[in-house]
Design a protein that fits this description.
mainly alpha; 5 helices; elongated
């Protein structure tokens, strides 16, 4: 998993906001307040090819959070990368040499990765 650049993240947030921007045609059958509650991110204008929205900061914060990579998953991925780095496929079983000790580190790191990720799902 290669971490995305800040630009890619910004583009993903922009895409999600654009997709979420709701333009009511006035026929939704809801009152203005109900309509606003149902679609917290409202289309407000189009300018220079960019969608502008009218939304509460909490609605935007929630949407951005839903788009951002899960920090726990990112941490777990980092731990697994570290595990892959120190691991080796030596089949020595002595438990104390330069092959066995890093293999033990790798196993510990993978356990930590599983732990970090399962903690995030609960
Ligand atoms: Zn509406
Ligand atoms: Zn060994």
């Amino acid at each position: 998993m290669t971490p995305e650049t800040p630009n890619e993240t910004a583009q993903r947030i922009a895409d999600a906001l654009t997709a979420a921007a709701f333009e009511c045609d006035g026929k939704c059958g809801l009152s203005e307040q109900e309509c606003y509650d149902a679609h917290p991110i409202m289309f407000s204008a189009m300018s220079n090819g960019t969608t502008h929205v009218n939304a509460s900061v909490t609605a935007i914060a929630e949407l951005v959070l839903s788009v951002l990579p899960d920090p726990a998953a990112a941490r777990a991925a980092g731990l697994r990368e570290a595990a892959a780095f120190v691991d080796n496929d030596d089949d020595c079983g002595c438990g104390g040499c330069d092959s066995c000790i890093p293999r033990k580190f790798a196993a510990d790191l993978r356990r930590m990765a599983d732990h970090v990720q399962s903690g995030a799902q609960s």
